[in-house]
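name: query_chain
kind: protein
chains: 1
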Amino acid sequence: MLLKMKSLKYISNYLFLFAVLLFGESIHAQETTTAPKRIDGVVAVVGDFLILDSDIDKTYIELQSQGTSIKDINRCELLGKLLEDKLYAHQAIQDSIPLPDTEIKGVMDNQINYMVEQLGSMEKVVKYFKKSTEEELKTDLYDIIKINKLAGKMQEKIVSSVEITPEEVRTFFKSIPTEDLPTFGAELELAQIVIKPKVPEAEKQKVITRLKEIKKDVQENGSSFYSKAVLYSQDPGSRSSGGYYKMDKKTPFVKEFKDVAFSLNEGEISEPFETDFGYHIIYVEKIRGQELDLRHILLIPSTPNESLKEAKQEIDLIRKRILDKEISFEEAARNFSHEKETKNNGGVLINPKTFDTRFELTKMDPSLYSMVSNLKAGEVTLPMMDEDRSGRKSYKIIMVTKSVPEHTANYAKDYTKIKELALKEKQLKAITKWSSTKINDTYIKINGEYRNCTFTNNWLKK
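structure:
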């Protein structure tokens, strides 16, 4: 679901970057007002794609918006990166890698809806980006998204078949000189117990009734499902786009949601149904084989203060029993936790970035860091209220099950991380080999002063 933007400064940077991407302002942070103005022209050609001098300026801006220092990055290096991106996109077209028009439009609609939400209206967005019409804005943004998507899909295809064996991991590790072994930061292994407040049946029935009313209004009175989602849905990830999601059987949505979605015919609206997020109705707009375009509305039943108070009392008691050694944290999680994803494995948390059980302190989510950074192995946090992005509240306690200090890489203890490094190196070699072959097979031309650049790849075909 939608990641909320944390500051106006971030929003400003986001809009500014799109402005640069869309109307090609030739801005370079290293240039002053007295510097000679560059004449924008074609500096390179890759297949059917052109690279303009202003594209290099735009890349400087993009790097800055991401917090990357551009002090030591020269124009030749940035041109090399642009050449790679265009080569990926060009070859994706040659290989007929599927990129449904709906996928591009879905991303475009989400980005435009976000910008409309920030600026207030489509007219203001068009004016901000100095476009004449909404159609011109959408055309330019569509082309940008298409190139980025094609390049990404091509890279995925190149590395998708690259696998690493245990012997290759061992060889990779042994090849690293002792003095060059990486250092891994301090890590924690964590487990948690979550107690969710009970929602009265009357509150559940209120949202079910409301969803049925919305469905009836759409079906019998011709009301817009899109508008209803914008007005009433409590899903922050899709509300601004009218509840829109594109999904297939592999999309990582909860089972209950997918089961209902794939049981519907095109144009059909579901009955209200429950997931861990609340109560939904789904409207299937389009079916294309195993892929759906759908919209949904999420409503979350209200939680009375009395229920929150009872949840707090329950988790206080659980924590006391753990500290008094009446029950282990693992047993308490299995018996009492309301979090389905963790309760059956004793509350153990999985790092969503690495998919293992370790959380490196320096890379930990700030809110989680503040809870556990000062704890030793075996210590348990005080009960704390947690609120998800939809506004639902719960109480949790977290225990540090293991603390691993900062250390030099060890093959046995850090096998997962070393395997990841070895795989990345093998993938990089696969990409390098692919690039070398495709550069020779693709029409590439570099113009003017850029022919004097020293590139990592043989773009000049010398």
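note: The chain has a mean pLDDT of 86.
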